[in-house]
Amino acid sequence: MAADQLIDEHPLHPAAHPHRDWPFRRSRTARYGIAIALVLLAFALRYWIFGTQDHRFVFIFFVPAAMVAAWYGGMAPGLLATAAGLMLGDYFFLSDHEALGLVREGERVAIGLYAVTTTLCVMLFENLHNHIRRVEHALERALHHHHKPHPDIPSGPASPH
Fold first, then answer.
1. pLDDT in tens, 120-132
2. What predicted TM-score, i.e. pTM, was given to this entire model?
3. Where are the domains of the chain?
């Protein structure tokens, strides 16, 4: 087996990692489609378990939906899932109020906690993605630099004098 093939198959080599340009190696359609699908699944679970009459745990299922969307698709799909969860939760599961009208103190706290917590989670996942990409690119540069022949060192066998 050639040395280059062993290097390319090494578990720490960036080419061996599925995360190389993660999450951006996935198509835009897949990233946003998964985000919307996760929010719809969260909505269906929340509706099935609690219905529309129970105003507790309004956003409970939308937080993990946004987190998985951010992990899978990056910051923009995560923020889309956050906003969609906020709109669906507000419209269907909070007590009756007019759009952009007054909400009770408890509802205001629930909306604020959901928005801040979920946005923070999305931002942390994006930060994690950035760190993964930087480490993998640094590893790629280090492996490339390590296996480059040095110009002062002959690459062939030494000739006897």
1. 999 999 999 899 8
2. 0.72
3. 18-145
